[in-house]
Structures are given as structure tokens and as C-alpha cells.
Amino acid sequence: MQFIQTIVVSLFLTIQAVAVAGQPVATEIVIRAQAKDAKFIGSSIGGAWIKITDADSGEILAEGLTQGSTGNTQTIMQQPKHRYDAIAKGAAAFRAVLEIDEPVFLTIEVLSPYIKRQARTLSQVQTWLVPGKPIQGDGLIVEVPGMIVDVLSPQTHKYTSIKNSPFELKANVVMMCGCSLTKGGLWDGDSIEVVAMIKKDGEDFLSVPLAMGKEMNTFSSAFKPDAPGVYHVTIYAYDPKTGNTGVDQTSFIVSS
User: In this structure, how many other beta carbons lie within 10 angstroms of the beta carbon of residue 23?
Assistant: First the structure.
């Protein structure tokens, strides 16, 4: 009799499990975008656009911006880390709750920083999400390489005379999270190589190193062209310690 009861109970539990397996389960996934060698990409820099799709069907399951702060500098950048240590408490994140009834293989795209079009990069990662098995806490952290470079001078397509030279080459450089570069700071501007690569009428002309001034994030140098022409300027920032690189471009016209 005991044997029969055991079989009945087991059969009942199996039927119950099958029924539950067919029901969608609300399952949370937390995604964060972290700038390479820096902090999290949050509201102060316009956030990172997150798109979650079903890797097999291509169906978009959720999308939106990361929101929140860049996080705690000491915890992220200075404090020694051990396995399972949380580093993202209070930092910007995108949270989605997916109704799934079976494991789904996800493609997660991170487009950031969202408002800085010339500096945007697309980072991508894939992961499984199982019903009732959330990815929470620090969540899924996606690294975003690069630096944001904005050419401040010369202005795009500016017309000027060679008599007005020398001209100022000037750029603003920050980390992808918006973190500032300062002399001798945590992100040391003096250790970053910033160079203007100049073409004249489509031909390589000159490379000019830019130096950091008193103002944070700002690099500049004088440039004296030797002849009229159309000048195309590409300014790059490069960190030799990490390989992190950012670029911006402009052009201007010099008359006689």
C-alpha cells in the first residue's frame, strides 16, 4: 500500500511540475555598462542604450537606457577586489523583467555613451536566462572601451585667413563614463597621448602633440599652416597603459 501511495504522490508531483513548466515566470535581468578603466555609464553622460533580443528569433524582448550614477569611485577603482565582492551598488543599470517559460538565449547590445554620437561604441554579449533564475546584484556588466574626444577648435568648416595664424588646436577628452582627466589625478591627463593628425588638401601634412592645460579634460597646441588650403584634423587620445582610444575630427579652410 505504501509503495502505491509513493507512486501516486510521485506521479502527482510530476504532473504538477509539467504544469508549472508551461507557465511564464517573471525573471529579472540587470545590465550595467562599465567604461574601460573607469566607472559606470549613467545618467550624467546620457546613459547607455541596452537592447535585449532573443538570439534565435531576433525578437526584441526589452530595451532602454541605463539610469543612475557612475558609482562609488573608491569601490570601483581603488579598493582591492575579492571574488564575489559587489562593486556596483547604487550605480547605473538597466533592469528588465522577462516573462519566460523556458530557458532563452539572449543577445545583449550596449550602445554608449548614447548622447555622444561621435564616440558611441557597440558592445555585445550573450547569455542564457532560465525561468525563475534571475541575474541580479551587480548583474551582467558589459565593458565599454574608448574615450570621448570633442574637438573644440578649430570650428567645423571655419573659413579663415593665413594672416590669422597660428590657430589653436583644442580638444576635450573624458572617459566613456564622463570621468574627468586631471594632472596627476586618478585619470592622469599627463599620461594620455593626445595628437592632432593634419591633412592638407587630402594629403598627410603634419602631426601636432597636444598638451594638457590648467583646465581639466582640455588639451591644446598652436598650429601655423604654411599655405592656403583645406585642412582636415583628426585628434586622437590614447592611453598606452590600457590601449583605450578615442577620436574626433573636424575640417577648416585657410585662404591667403
Answer: 9
Measured CA to CA, the distance from residue 172 to residue 150 in angstroms comes to: 5
**What's the CA gap between 36 and 27, in Å, rounded?**
29
> Is-contact 89 75, C-beta < 8 A?
yes
* Neighbour-count burial of 158, counting CB atoms closer than 10 A to its CB (0-12 exposed, 13-18 middle, 19+ buried): middle
Of 39, 256, 38, 61, residue with least CA distance to 160: 256
Reported pTM: 0.88
Q: Using CA atoms, how far apart are residues 140 and 108, in angstroms rounded to an integer?
A: 10
Cα 24 versus chain centre, distance: 33
Q: List, for residues 144-174, the tens digit of each pLDDT value.
A: 999 999 999 999 999 999 999 999 999 999 9
Q: Are 221 and 196 in contact (CB under 8 A)?
A: yes
Average pLDDT over residues 238-255: 97
pLDDT tens profile 79-114: 999 999 999 999 999 999 999 999 999 999 999 999
Q: Which grid cell is 101?
A: 517559460
